[in-house]
Structures are given as structure tokens and as C-alpha cells.
Design goal:
The protein is mainly beta. It has 1 helix and 14 strands, in the order E-E-E-E-E-E-E-E-E-E-E-H-E-E-E. Strands 1, 2, 3 and 4 form a 4-stranded antiparallel β-sheet that branches.
Amino acid sequence: MFVAQQGGAIRIIRDGMLVERPFVDLSSEISSGGERGLLGLAFAPGYPADPRVFVDYTDRAGNTVVSALTVDPSDPDRLDPATELPILHVQQPFANHNGGALVFDPGGDLLVSLGDGGSGGDPRGNGQSLTTLLGKILRLTAPFQQCAFDRLLTFLIGPFHHPRTVHRAWRDRVHPHLGRQCTREVLRQADNACLRRAVGETGTRA
């Protein structure tokens, strides 16, 4: 079992015991506390044959980073921090509502949930706007690679129901209007339905 800790470490539990050395420790890159920290973890669908692990965290400036790391070929219990490849960087205007859920769908695309950017009541209307990535579930299509934000944003502004290719690493499949803070996302394999848990102003909703 792998456990992601908010402070930035990913730990291994084997045979009911905590392995002393972390799988990886990203604490030096992360701002943690409140709703910030290491918020999401997903293994490549072919893991361990595909040795990549994907993480979502808030960096030292409090902004969202999604990146991929690769297992050390000499040690399957260790991710090599030097292999970190940033895929997505999104500025967060406030300290809360950072989202962070990561999950692969059956087709191998990576779903990334972003909160609405924070404060209370989504004051900037990000959850209802297609001019920002905040308040959305993004679908990242392999091969996963770094993509300039302005190109991706241009991608989102276009006709929502008419997918078109702007960059091979991205697809225009963004799920808008889905709430302010997705904390958990589960794909139901039987019918490929996406079930998500979101936090409302006064509680949790599904």
C-alpha cells in the first residue's frame, strides 16, 4: 500500500508495517497546511512495467503542480526525484480549494481535478467560466508532456462540444460546472461513470 502524506512524502506499507524510507519525499518543493500540500497520487496504468507515478501538489508559492516521477531502476521502492517532469502548473489565487484528485480512466487518460481557486462562494466565478482551468476536471491525454498554459487555455475557450486538436498532449475534454472543490474521484469500471465527491460551503456532496 502507498500512502500520500500532505507534507510531501509518499510512504509504503508492506505486510502491515511502515517501510522506514519514504517512496519519495517532496517536502522541500511543497507548501503544506490547511488545504495545501501533496494532494493527489496516481500510478501509470501499466505500473510497474510503466514505472511512472503522477502527483498533484501545491508548490512553495501555493500554486498547483501536476508532475510525473519515475521509479529508480535499481530500487523499486524508491522514486527518483531527479526524474520529476512537470506537466501542468496552475496559479491559485487563494490558499484553499486546490482540488488535487488524480485518477486514470480506462482509456489511459489522466483526470485532474482543480478546485475553484478558493476564498468562499467562488467570488471569481471560476467554476462557471471556460476561460480558466480552475473549477474543472481536466483530461490529459498521453503522451504526457509539458504544455504551455496559454495554449491550453486557448484550447478551453473554443467550442466545448466540438473537440479539436491544439496540442497532441491535450484533448478538449474539460468537465465544467462541477462544483468548487473535488476531493475524491472514482471511476466506475462497469460503465465508465465518473463519481466525484465535492465539498460544499456547508458540507460534502456526491
